[in-house]
Design goal:
The complex is a heterotrimer.
Chain A: H1 2-29, H2 36-61, H3 69-87, H4 89-113, H5 118-137, E1 142-143, H6 153-157, E2 159-160, E3 163-164, H7 165-183, H8 185-195, H9 197-202, H10 207-233, E4 235-236, H11 244-255, H12 266-285, H13 292-312
Helix pairs in contact in A: 1-12, 1-13, 2-7, 2-8, 2-10, 2-11, 2-12, 3-4, 3-5, 3-10, 4-10, 7-8, 8-10, 11-12, 12-13
Chain B: H1 14-21, H2 24-38, H3 45-70, H4 78-91, H5 93-96, H6 98-123, H7 127-146, E1 151-152, E2 165-166, E3 169-170, H8 171-189, H9 191-201, H10 203-208, H11 213-239, E4 241-242, H12 250-261, H13 272-291, H14 296-318
Antiparallel strand pairs in B: 1-4, 2-3
Chain C: E1 8-17, E2 20-30, E3 35-39, H1 46-53, E4 61-66, E5 69-71, H2 76-82, E6 84-87, H3 99-103, H4 118-132, H5 147-160, E7 165-169, H6 177-192, E8 196-200, H7 204-210, E9 213-218, E10 221-227, H8 233-241, H9 245-248, E11 259-268, E12 272-280, E13 284-289, H10 295-303, E14 310-315, E15 318-319, H11 325-331, E16 333-336, H12 340-344, H13 351-356, E17 364-365, E18 368-369, H14 371-384, H15 401-413, E19 419-423, H16 431-446, E20 450-455, H17 458-464, E21 467-472, E22 475-481, H18 487-495
Parallel strand pairs in C: 3-8, 3-9, 6-7, 7-8, 13-20, 13-21, 16-19, 19-20
Antiparallel strand pairs in C: 1-2, 1-4, 4-5, 9-10, 11-12, 11-14, 14-15, 17-18, 21-22
Helix pairs in contact in C: 4-5, 5-6
The chains are: A mainly alpha, B mainly alpha, C alpha/beta.
Chain lengths: 318, 324, 505
């Protein structure tokens, strides 16, 4: 049927088309916009949010949510920066990643095994982890004094082959995550659990375990993001990660991954996050203050998801 | 299929069942008891008055949120709507006068709520996504209107409204209770309220009975937006300023309060009484911890832990009561 | 008190779905003040007919005449307005609302401002309840009532909306004896007030107790309508079944080998207790019973989806302890569940991904999926089972029921299980695919698999099984093999309540 083909075609690439149009429109008003330098700059700016979103994508595909990532980012960055000064960068990184895994495991235990509501659990963790951060830092901000000489600066402040390291890390981790999601047993199980949890259990796939590991991945990705963030800022305030969870979710939604679970991909998330970044950047280049992007994001989310739903009409449970 | 082998012997001990369904009061009682023992300042009239007022802001937001949740939906944008109404109520005063500005603030909340409701009802999008977008976008509107600095009211007598007290109860707290009681009445005695329950409880049955689901959802979101605006107006009267970052994170506290009270996210179950209980428990916890001079982090960690415990408790209890 | 002029007449109604004629020129009528039973095997068309009357389906041909006029029933709300009420197993009620609110759902009396007129609502509800002899009041919250009483509330809607035709679909599935008596009293009450009642059931003793006339459906056609008092179980059974069984079904000619699975004293308190049986290589064990007997729950417990609370499972002679679906699959068990949409397949994905889901080790190397092997297996089974699909990625939601079921089979067969349990494998599937599945079952047994088939369709279970176990209300109530496997024996075994009365909780 012609109309479904058009809609499904639009759905698949509609976002892309709209995005390209947007890019075109902005580039008319600003020469700098589509320059390589600017593109790399935008990617660098979204690399932290994007890194987190890559991990959270796994959780969303299983049909859950993770609202704790912002507070987790704060805690992990503070921990990382502080420990950098105490035990050195290498151990600090190891410690931070271990903490990330522990936090993710806790989320996974509550949501996966105990089957508590993901929204509320991760909301509770948002609050709890914020408190934990204050407890750890004693309310003061942390700084890395030897910012110029520590090799830790590599992650956030260096370039390799002319590309900022954060971008390389973001895309690199993205590629690995995409591989895991599309080519491994675990990835299949993530999609299956999200697509039909009951049938997955009947097929010998433990949905509890799959969700558990998804939360660990989300936390681990947040740990990577903390490394980039800490390295870039060379310090951490107690509120450094506040609000990230919203942008992460917005990016995942924009990319077309369904909140119901069972579909989506890492590349969709990367695209969604990149779009957010280009919207912000484009609007800034056009002279708008930074908060106008929020308005635009709102409009874009509604349009994008509505188109997406129109394409699936008939299969949507509503 | 269950094997009913005799008359269903449900534990019809009324008191126990009531406690199962209303466990928030146990929490509240416990919290009050603990803090009264821990601090001599807790049970003073002055402090109680403070608790009531402090809790009232989240409380008013929670009234709207409860309605939306019983419908099976959620509204993440209440904090942002609050900020916009605060900004309009103060910012427009010079141009159109105090009370028209306040009215404009209220209308903005109603309009945004209406918008959320329409999109949710007609697009089939989950309200989480719709109101997440609104949360982000309306905050943008606020900043566009106010710029990055807070707006200040020109005539400070505006803030005197917040100073009105009925005995120990401030006008803010009074508004909260009046609204909560009013909407509780709506939930129990009007067609809209009861059909809201029906929709959240068993949407197919509601649909088959011919209930207009879209209309109810739109009404509830509009009310929720209006409630956010009311809270915003009261906040503006209290502070005399409109911060563009007002209300940030408040939607999360609102959800926490409502869920803590016992209203279910899945819909079809809840009441304003429960919400009052949840809001007050939250307020008591925060107030009590502050009185004890506990550092900031304790409050945040306690809130998180209490919420998770409440979830676990709810899980255990609901598997024991009805044979669904 | 029954009047001879029908209140509802179904005239040569036909309804087809892709591949199957569900109703074939069905004609029957209901008189006011009569209880008219509608019987037939699963798949005979009872459920379709009922849905047409209730406004859920539209007939393709024929007409429905209600109160003397031809009508078009467009929706359930429409049916209700016309006075036709369907009471089925998923009660269409709201547990959080009161009894009165449920009775009048969608039609509450309010004043100008939308405020409920509670006293009127409760008063009207009370009259409906009193008319039924209910012992509870209108302001009680529905969720506090037992299922039987909730059912009464649904029936009270009949009175409230002045229904003139009420259709009951297997209403006694989850009721105890006392509750059944209550229900029957209610039905008789309705009948005495002139309502025309359609009673759909498998239970012969209930039908002969309660009804005035019986219409038998078979394969979508009416076999006849008789007066209950002039008929008997034998005649009805004959009309329900009356076909040559052997022509349709294939019983495997296999040699029976050693024991593959044995269970002893299995129990899951809410669903079944004290179940013991065993099955051997090459054997097809049928499990027959009515809806609600606990058969699905039994096999789900064996497979590990549900928790086994008591009893022992032995696999090839060795005790296994409690199983999980993962352990069961690794041992060599397979379960084709009752609901392919909810339990059997991830409909959003294609055949290839669904086939490999239970067998990660088979289709991967060092956790990386081997897509080539998935494709090979997909092709193998597509040919072997003759599945109609456009390719390995076509979403299974696009396929017909029969083809979906074939994928469920493929996903288990590809790992060479030693035991395969099939729960209602041909439900909702067209005749052609049904036959293919029966042939398949026979082939599996002939290849040495142990097969357990759960079926509510008597001809099917009689046709494919070497041995049949019957279950009723959570207990194993009979075992038949060889010449003992007759319709009469099966019906008798499950029609009565289990003789040892289950002690009330």
């Amino acid at each position: 049927m012609k109309s479904t083909n058009l809609i499904s075609g639009l759905k698949k690439s509609g976002l892309l088309v709209a995005f390209v149009v947007f890019l075109g429109a902005v580039s008319l008003t600003s020469d700098a916009f589509l320059s390589v330098g600017n593109i790399l700059d935008v990617l660098r700016q979204v690399s932290i949010t994007g890194m987190i979103a890559i991990g959270t994508t796994f959780v969303v595909i299983t049909g859950r949510l993770d609202l704790s990532v912002g507070s987790m980012l704060t805690l992990l960055t503070v921990l990382l920066v502080d420990q950098h000064n105490q035990v050195g960068p290498l151990l600090a990184i190891v410690l931070t990643l271990a903490a990330a895994i522990a936090l993710g495991a806790f989320n996974g235990l509550l949501v996966g095994y105990l089957k508590l509501n993901a929204l509320i659990v991760t909301l509770a963790m948002l609050s709890f982890l914020q408190g934990l951060t204050l407890l750890y830092s004693g309310g003061s901000n942390v700084n890395i004094p030897n910012a110029q000489t520590t090799w830790f600066r590599f992650f956030g402040r260096s370039d390799m082959f002319g590309i900022p390291v954060p971008v390389l890390l973001f895309l690199g981790v993205g590629a690995i995550a995409a591989f895991v999601l599309t080519r491994t047993v675990f990835g299949r199980q993530v999609y299956a659990v999200g697509g039909n949890e009951t049938a997955s259990n009947f097929s010998g796939v433990s949905s509890a375990r799959t969700v558990f590991w998804a939360y660990i991945l989300s936390a681990l990705a947040t740990g990577f993001a903390a490394i980039i963030l800490g390295s870039r800022v060379m310090g951490a305030q107690n509120t450094i990660g506040q609000g990230y969870e919203l942008t992460v979710l917005a990016g995942i939604i924009l990319g077309g991954t369904s909140m119901l679970g069972g579909s989506g991909s890492v590349w969709r998330t990367v695209l969604g996050i990149a779009m957010l970044g280009f919207i912000q950047n484009g609007l800034l280049l056009m002279g708008f203050p930074y908060y106008v992007q929020w308005l635009v994001t709102w409009v874009v989310i509604i349009i994008a998801v509505w188109i997406d739903l129109a394409g699936k009409r008939g299969r949507v449970l509503a | 299929m269950t094997m009913n082998t005799g008359a269903q012997s449900r534990h019809t001990n009324g008191a126990v069942t009531w406690l199962f369904r209303n466990h928030i009061w146990l929490f509240l009682g416990l919290a009050i008891a603990i803090f009264s023992l821990a601090s001599p300042y807790f049970l003073t009239v002055n402090n109680i008055s403070n608790v009531l007022t402090q809790g009232a802001f989240i409380g008013i937001l929670a009234v709207g949120m409860t309605l939306v949740m019983i419908d099976g939906e959620i509204d993440l944008s209440v904090g942002a709507i609050l900020a916009l109404s605060t900004a309009l109520a103060i910012g427009l005063q010079e141009q159109i006068g105090v009370w028209p500005a306040v009215l404009a603030g209220l209308l903005s909340g109603a309009a945004l709520g209406f918008f959320n409701g329409v999109i949710t009802a007609f697009s089939g999008m989950h309200s989480f996504i719709v109101t997440l977008g609104a949360l982000i976008g309306i905050r943008g509107l606020v900043f566009i209107y106010t710029g990055e600095d807070a707006l200040m009211v020109q005539d400070f007598s505006y803030t005197e409204y917040a100073e009105i007290y009925l005995g120990p109860v401030s006008v803010t707290a009074l508004t909260f209770f009046v609204l909560a009681l009013f909407f509780q009445w709506v939930l129990t005695s009007t067609r809209h309220g009861r059909e809201t329950f029906a929709i959240g409880d068993n949407i197919e049955a509601a649909h088959d009975a011919g209930i207009n689901i879209k209309r109810h959802k739109i009404i509830n979101f509009s009310i929720c937006g209006t409630m956010a605006a009311v809270a915003g107006i009261l906040l503006s009267m209290r502070l005399g300023t409109a911060e563009p970052n007002a209300g940030k994170i408040w939607e999360l506290w609102t959800i926490i309060a409502v869920v803590l009270g016992g209203t279910r996210l899945t819909g079809g179950f809840g009441s304003m009484w429960k919400t009052i209980g949840g809001v007050m428990t939250l307020a008591v916890l925060r107030n009590g911890l502050r009185l004890l001079n506990t550092p900031n982090y304790v409050e945040l960690m306690v809130m998180g832990a209490v919420l998770i415990l409440a979830l676990l408790l709810d899980r255990v209890l609901s598997s024991q009561t009805e044979a669904r | 008190m029954s009047n001879q002029t029908p209140i509802l007449t179904v005239n040569e109604v036909t309804k087809t779905f892709p591949g199957v004629v569900a109703l074939n020129e069905v004609s029957f009528d209901i008189r006011p003040g009569e209880v008219h039973a509608l019987v037939g095997e699963n798949g005979a068309g009872k459920s379709t007919l009922m849905k047409v009357l209730a406004g859920l389906y539209k007939a393709d041909a024929g007409e429905i005449i209600h109160q003397g006029k031809p009508v078009d029933i467009a929706s359930p709300l429409d049916a209700r307005h016309q006075g036709i009420l369907l009471i089925h197993q998923e009660l269409s009620l709201s547990p959080e609302l009161s009894v009165a609110e449920n009775i009048f759902l969608g039609a509450w009396p309010t004043n100008r401002f939308g405020v409920l007129r509670k006293s009127k609502l409760n008063k009207d509800a009370q009259s409906a309840l009193t008319a039924l002899g209910a012992d509870f009041g209108p302001s009680v919250r529905l969720g506090t009532l037992s299922i039987a009483k909730q059912q009464m509330v649904e029936i009270a809607r009949a009175n409230a909306f002045e229904a003139n035709v009420v259709i009951f679909d297997e209403p006694t599935a989850s009721l105890t004896d006392t509750e059944k008596d209550l229900l029957f009293a209610t039905i008789r009450n309705l009948r005495d007030r002139g309502v025309g009642i359609v009673y759909i059931s498998h239970k012969m003793d209930e039908i002969f107790d309660l009804t005035d006339r019986i219409t038998v459906l078979r394969d979508g056609q009416v076999q006849g309508t008789v007066k209950t008092e002039e008929s008997d179980v034998g005649q009805i059974t004959q009309m329900m079944i009356g076909r040559e069984l052997d022509a349709f079904f294939h019983r495997a000619k296999s040699t029976l080998g050693s024991e593959v699975l044995r269970v002893e004293g299995l129990m899951n308190t809410r669903h079944f207790r004290d179940v013991s049986f065993s099955v051997r290589q090459g054997e097809v064990l049928g499990l027959y019973g009515l809806v609600g007997a606990g058969r699905s729950e039994l096999v789900e417990t064996i497979f590990g989806v549900r928790t086994m609370e008591a009893g022992e499972i032995y696999w090839q002679g060795q005790p296994t302890g409690r199983l999980t679906p993962r352990k069961a699959t690794d041992l060599g068990m397979a379960l084709v569940p009752e609901s392919r949409k909810e339990q059997g397949l991830v409909l959003g994905q294609g055949g290839r991904a669904n086939i490999s889901l239970p067998h990660p080790n088979m289709f991967s190397r060092a956790t990386v999926m081997n897509v080539a092997s998935e494709m090979r297996v997909f092709d193998t089974y597509k040919k072997q089972l003759d599945i109609k699909t456009t390719g390995p990625e076509q979403a299974l939601s696009d396929l017909s029921g029969g083809n979906q079921q074939k994928f469920v089979l493929a996903k288990w067969l590809c790992a060479d299980p030693k035991l395969i349990i099939l729960d209602e494998p041909t439900r909702g599937i067209d005749i052609g695919s049904k036959s293919a599945i029966h042939e398949l079952i026979a082939g599996l047994a002939e290849n040495g698999l142990a097969v357990i088939v759960i079926s509510s369709e008597m001809p099917e279970v009689l046709g494919v099984s070497h041995r049949i176990l019957t279950m009723s209300e959570g207990r194993m109530v009979g075992q038949f093999s060889g010449v003992e496997m007759t319709e009469k024996n099966l019906i008798e075994a499950v029609s009565h309540c289990a003789d040892d009365v289950l002690t009330p909780v």
